[in-house]
Amino acid sequence: MKTAWFHCFAGTAGDMTLASLVHAGADPMVVAEIVGRLPLHGYALTFEPTMRCGLAATLAVVAVDDHDQHGSDQHGQHRSYGSIRDMLAAVDLPATVRDRAQRTFRALAEVEAAMHGVAIDDVEFHEVGSIDAIVDIVGSCAALETLGIKHIVCSPITVGQGTVRAAHGELPNPAPAVAELLARRAAPSRGVADGRELATPTGVALMTALADEFGPMPAMSVGSVGYGAGAADIAGRPNVVQVVIGEQLMPSADQLLPGPGQPAVVLEVNVDDTTGEVIAHTIAALVGAGAFDAWATPIVMKKGRPAHTVHALCDPVVAPTIGRVLLRETGSLGLRGTTVARWPQSREETVVQVDGHPIRVKIAAGRAKVEHDDAVAAAAALGMSLREVLARAERLAVT
Description:
Blueprint: E1 2-7, H1 14-23, H2 28-35, E2 43-52, E3 55-64, E4 79-80, H3 81-90, H4 95-116, E5 124-125, H5 131-146, E6 151-154, E7 157-159, E8 163-166, E9 169-172, H6 176-185, E10 189-191, H7 201-210, E11 213-214, E12 220-229, E13 240-248, E14 262-271, H8 276-288, E15 293-300, E16 306-314, H9 319-330, E17 336-342, E18 348-354, E19 357-364, E20 367-370, H10 372-382, H11 386-398
Parallel strand pairs: 1-6, 6-11, 7-10
Antiparallel strand pairs: 1-13, 2-3, 4-5, 8-9, 12-13, 14-16, 14-17, 15-16, 18-19, 19-20
Helix pairs in contact: 1-5, 1-7, 2-5, 3-4, 4-5, 4-6, 4-7, 6-7, 8-9, 10-11
């Protein structure tokens, strides 16, 4: 499995992440072409060789012309999360690039919404909404795509101390958004006695949103190594993000688990006075509210009453929201929860055409999973059986 391990020993930033991948072999022309599909104007993306503490590295530079007159609103420091989300959805990007970029901006928006007490669609990005940050995020996702990266691992992330200057004024270092991103993912980090902003929200969002796991470099056959430079040349410590690219070796048969799992919560209620239709609606509502998965199990309660347990698996951060949905939809008088670990497989999404009808397919570990709703719509439009559409879509996805 093609894997990228990011060593954030000196911190991380969006431009450092992008530059490290280019230094490791991502084609800068392909990266620039994919980023160039965005409706952004008045900027130039270049990659320059440089040195950091005697170590050869690559510097990614996004030069923005603030006086460019084409789409002048593109240069402002204030973009809403909704506008960026819609822009990414509308542009012709590779599916994996779009998915990774959307996940990164979603992580940032959720943090900003929680910190400022606003709805997620009302979040206004400042530094993160500027052209260079958007280019850094989409460019990093494009570079991962060009390298064929399927699995991402990240080391503990180094952060600074003291305070930093931001759009909202002087803030603690690490910045609140950085601290919250790390907390939501339970990502390992370490502080050093340095007053610089070593870890930026953009860089940390890329790692926490996209990393499949955190820890030391996995067992892998190394193919290339890249170093992405930060703006400052710090004495005594190369200010770079190191990325190691290679084929990860599969765990031996006696290894039951691939590494530390992601924390998750299972919430559940027992109900004996709810119809099957209500339970089905509850499951859909739980997934719609952000649960990783939701399901129901038939049980027998006291006095032999047939009943169901409704379960929801979710991120600890959204557990309060999921709990409220579970209580509201089932009418239960209480719920219980268990903290667990999860090991999601790396996956990618592609779109196939069945007689002109687009159908999304998730591919993971050689298995293709067809998006049910897309297949149902295509079957109805084509007058075909659902089974035939599912089979054809799966064949197209794996060939």
